[in-house]
Amino acid sequence: MKAQILPLILLAATCNLSAQQKKDTLSTRTIEDVKLHKTGNPNNARISTTKSQLDVMETPQAISTVTHETIEQQQAQQLSDVVKNVNGVYITAARGASQDSFGARGYAFGNENIYKNGSRVNSGIFPEVSGLERVEVLKGSAAILYGNVAPGGIVNMVTKKPLFNFGGNIGLNYGSWNSIKPTIDIYGGLTKNSAIRVNGSYENKDSFRDNISSEKHYFNPSFLYNISEKTQIIIEADYLKHSFTPDFGLGGLVLNSKTNESKLNTLLGIDKFVGAKWQYQTNEMLTSTVTLNHEINSNWNFNTVAFFQNYTRDFYGTERIQWNLQNNGDYVWKRTLNKQYQEQNYGSIQFNLNGHFKTGKIQHKLLAGADADYLQADTYAYQLQKQNGDFADAGNNFLYGTNGNTSNGNVYLSDENSWKSGDMLNSRKKDLNRIPTRRVGVYAQDLISITDKFKILAGLRWSYLENSSTIVQNYLTGEKSYKESTGNPKESAFSPRVGLVYQIDNSFSTFASYSNSFTPNTGRDINNMPLPSSLIDQYEIGLKKNFFKNTLAFNITAYQIENSNLAQTAALDGNGNLNTDTNIKEMTGATRSRGVELDITGNPTPYLSINAGYSYNNMVYTDTPDTDGSFIEGERLVRTPANTANLSVHYTSQNYIKGLRLGFSIFYTGDRLAGWNNIKDQYGNQKTNRMYKIGDFTTVDFSVGYQFKKFSIQGKVGNLFDVVDYNVHENYSVNPITPRNYYLTLSYKL
What we know:
The protein is mainly beta. It has one domain: Maltoporin, Chain A, CATH 2.40.170. The protein is 4% helix and 55% strand. The chain contains 4 helices and 43 strands. It has a 22-stranded antiparallel β-barrel. It has a 5-stranded mixed β-sheet with strand order 1-7-8-5-6. A 5-stranded mixed β-sheet has the order 15-14-18-19-24, with no helix packed on it. The longest helix is centred in the N-terminal third of the chain and has 12 residues. The N terminus is likely disordered.
């Protein structure tokens, strides 16, 4: 293992606290950081994810925040460790161990739902959490602010910001499976008008899984400059490189190939690895952000953010592990081999104007904005050389069996000798598929205070989405061609939002809201025309209450999400014949998601922090036709746990052993359905049994630490009772959760 430290340098922006005003100025984010961390009550804060001047108490929507104090206390290793503190947000899959995929309220998060400092970022990489100031989760619909996002919510990672006073931290984390992670965080003022922050880390570790290793470099510089008392510019950049062994886990057991009846593979130990020993994956992401804040006057301010991201994924290895039952009772996997290189270049810009004013006796808080982005997604496909010298397309049909045998890809569950991988095969580039996508949106919302207590939030967004034809460059023939987009090439949609807030006082508010969002569809109708987007309605009611002199927040929310226009495989084609093409679809289905969320968060004393929550969700198909390929009415959607819960308590002693820190965390994930949802035959009867149940599980973490002057030491035992469970992507990527683990962190405060 390499024993090296790569410091990373993080530059972020904040104004000098002593010079900040009480009103919304250029330094709003810093002011709100102070409110959040000093009081420990997220209901007292104003989060940047809303893009507005609205306080959490007057926002008719559920909002959760995980601070850097919680991240550090729990010694979080990755983003999934952070967001499990947010009730109702859960891991949907860990495909290939290259990323954690999240979901909320029954909907999976894609690239459109993960943000950094308010700008969309690629979700195909494990983010570095040591540089995070906090993580904000805006639950429910965020379409009015961010366009075509999944209706479950969005996750916004807010990086640490520079301060004018000198400070920082140097740390070293060591843990299970030879994990070592040095970190550095340094900030300070350069002049009276400028500041920087240096934040970075290096990580090297093995795994409880055989043959699995990981190495990560993180570098994040940023710079802040106050051009004048009213104008501020922030320049940020970060670089993340993650090299690791792609791991598709244990695979599912397919009991019946005709119906796809499957079950969880518990025949292999959680440490067993059946891929190629040499396989690799390297993800790299470079981002840069320029933020300009300008105070027009005491009532109005303007903000613009320009963002660029380059993301690459270099993958070569086996995947899609599915063990199929044979007549002799053994299970066989036709081990496939794939090589792929992806590159995405993404740029975005947004403008936000915030102001408050009066019309007569009525108060207004207005947000008006616009955004635009462009994505160029490149995918390079390869051919691999077989043992006989021939080249064939890499992918799901390229077999790579025992000792690299390319004529027989069979490996057997019962025979570990058959898992031997052989040497890496030669490859050559086959073709490039380039997909350009453009989006534009304009939006406005106004919080209208009819009285001090009764408020109305009304807003509307117009979004435009353009999916250009795919550019195909064939490197073997030298030919260039164009392939029509599988989605609607051009479409637009309106996303309205209306909410009612009754704020009894500064510590108690109730709300009700309605919002609409849209989800683009792929495929064509029976007339070979692109499908329109599905329009999704979301209803939400709740209350927010502060206790113990506003130090503890109690929030409860109930919601219903309806997709009454779900695209499904069409029963008949354009000629009236039975349709067998799954790309020919019709808008004939419907889903409904219902649930309740409750959370209790805060610092009842300066030395005690509490974060607890519970959520219930039920998402089912409510209307499907009795045609071949349609889903089953009343069936719960896969990968959506009905129940999740969390409880974390951390205490710092000030009496007996001053500086002693104790904490524990309990996380519960209810039972889930893995595989694929079942479908009907042409007579409306169920023809598949593609789902299997994954049981619920509870993990417990315990931590103890001690701080003396500028030094601190903290130990943690994760998954204290060594619970075994799994995250499953469809039925082929079955990854065990991390067993009992130990971590120790030493740090020095500058």
